[in-house]
Amino acid sequence: MHNPSNVLRIATWEFRRFFRLRDLAILTLSLLGSVAVGGITAGYVRAASSKPVRVAVIHHDLLSVATAAASRVQLQSETRDRADALRQEIGRKQLDGLLIIHSARDAELLVRKSPPWRAELEQAVTAARRQMRLSDAGLSEADVHYINEPLPLRVSIHESGSPSSVAERYAALLFIGFLFLGLVLSFSFHFEAITGEKQARVTEVILSAIHPHDWMDGKIAGITATGLATVLCYAALAAISAIGVRAAGVPLPMVGGAMNPGRIVMFLTLAILALVMWNCFFAAIAAMINEPTSSSRGTLMSFPITVWLIAVPVLGNPDTTVSKIMSYIPLTSYVVLPVRLVMSEVAWWEFPLAVTLLLAAIWVLRRLAGQIFSAGMMMTGKQLTPSDAWRWLRGATA
Question: What Gene Ontology cellular-component terms does the record carry (predicted)?
Answer without folding.
Answer: membrane
